[in-house]
Amino acid sequence: MTQKHLVTGPFAELWRKTNSVVVIDGIGLDGNVFVDDPSVAVTLVKSPEILSQVDDAEFVEFQSISESVFQNLVRELNRLHGTNHPERFWRIVCGAWFLQFAQVWYLRWKVAGDVWREHGELNCRRIDVKWQELLPVTHDEASLLFATDIWNHIAYCDAIKFVARSSQVETVITSLDRNRDLAEYRAVINYGLPSQSAKSKLESLLAKLSPRPKVVLAGVVQSRAALVAMHLRLGVLPRLWRFSAKLTPQPVNESLRGKLNFSEGSDGGFAKFLSDSISRHLPTVYLEGFKDLLAQTFSENALTKPPRAIFTNTLLHRSEQFKLWSATFVTQGKTKL
How far is residue 222's CA from residue 177's CA, in Å, rounded to a whole number? Predict the structure, then answer.
């Protein structure tokens, strides 16, 4: 009987010298199956067909599980940082990352479970990429990594290994080109960190004219003229906001990450899969780089008095500094976001 191999990415080393493969989402951008060896028998697994089976009850269960894990994350971040921030603080700071990660992680877990039930034991080749090489610095970088072939290859390998328990056959293969490509890509996107540029004279002037704004409009996608008009309608002086202080990627602290404890309430299934994965995926800006984020954030946009309201439509997902800045004011109880 021919032993099938599981292929979880468009990398030829995953199906080289095989006769039969099961390929997850094996259609390339050109519309063709990326396993291009005619001597290899291919069975395609189309994840959209599996995910379309998620009904309302399953979605509610996912929400319940992910919320429970998030509450544990809040507890652990406060414990490791020696803080006592309320849940609202951490939901603003890292809630957007957690929700996106939990959703992506659930989809990988669900597809892996379906593959395991349908095809049973499969040989699985895993490219030797360490989790530290894929650990994002920011939420913005995490979002970009979620869309890469190498991240999804590793994610599916982890999911298959989890659902198959110890019976999964996994072979680790070295592919220096993949490691180099990953490192170069992360450097190109600057780890999701903001680009550096000096404040304009207009920004500096408006900051002097409005040092204690009652309303903040930041990350609102409008022209400058429209922003001025919005400020005036709200009865406040215009001001431009920039959250681009220089953040330095911090080294991964494996010992610190090993102290994250999610054992409470993780009794198996997706809850355990998600909980066990947080330490390998939590962006460093929320753990190793949190002190640097705190220092840099308030050195750039210091306010002596909390604003009454903060309006934004992009920065809650893209700017770590804005999230920390706004969370600090909101949890003081005097600012609405």
Answer: 42
Q: For residue 10, what are its two tokens?
A: 């468009």
Cβ-based neighbour number of residue 281 at 10 Å? 21
E strands, 180-275, are 215-217
In total, the chain counts a number of residues equal to 337
- Residues near 53 by Cβ (< 8 Å), separated by ≥ 6? none
Q: Specify the 3-state DSSP secondary structure of 125.
A: strand
* Residue 249 to residues 168, 277, 284, 296, Cα–Cα distance (Å): 35, 21, 8, 13
Q: For residue 167, what are the CA distances in angstroms to 123, 139, 162, 170, 279?
A: 10, 34, 10, 9, 24
Tens digit of each residue's pLDDT, the chain (337 residues): 567 889 998 999 999 889 999 999 888 777 788 888 889 988 899 999 999 999 999 999 999 999 999 999 999 999 999 999 999 999 999 999 999 999 999 999 999 999 999 998 888 899 999 999 999 999 999 999 999 999 999 999 999 999 988 656 678 888 888 989 999 989 888 888 877 666 777 777 777 777 778 888 777 777 777 777 887 888 787 777 777 777 888 999 999 999 998 876 556 799 999 999 999 999 999 999 999 998 888 777 667 678 888 888 878 888 898 899 899 989 988 888 8
| Phi–psi pair at 203, nearest 5 degrees | -60, -45
Q: Give 250's contacts (C-beta < 8 A, 6+ positions apart).
A: 284, 288, 289, 292
Residue in 103, 144, 95 with CA at minimum distance from that of residue 320 = 95
Look up tokens 């998620």; give the residue.
54
